[in-house]
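Same chain as my last thread, 156 residues:
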Amino acid sequence: MSDAENKTLDSADIMKVLELLPHRYPFLMIDKIIEIDGDCSGIGIKNVTINEPHFQGHFPKQPVMPGVLLIEAMAQTAGAMCINARENTDSPSLVYFMTIDKCKFRKPVVPGDQVHFHVKKIRNRATIWKFDCTAMVDGQKVAEAEVSAMLVDSEA
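reply #2:
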């Protein structure tokens, strides 16, 4: 068997996501990550519920998840994957969001939706990563963007 056939994909449940990211309610935007392939690709999942605080004002009679939160969820998925790939290093890392490019919103995300954030590494150099990201609901693209971020060692 080749290495590709033997490869197993990693995953991160909510407890692992909480270990990897400093974000907490109400700003943690992902519930789990599935199919993690190192820092190359992965799929973050967000279960959208009416109980989230942004729905009180966006918009009360027609709740729509703010687009910037979809982009933040893409970045959190990518950042958690990068930190997870560095898991065996001595120092913990923080991820700083750097850029958003080619961003498009295609369809509203509403309570009851489950969003899948497909992220694929475009490249990385030293401590900077760039990812191509697509948000999908029921197989339909709802948003897309390219995001970049920098990993820095935290001063614990």
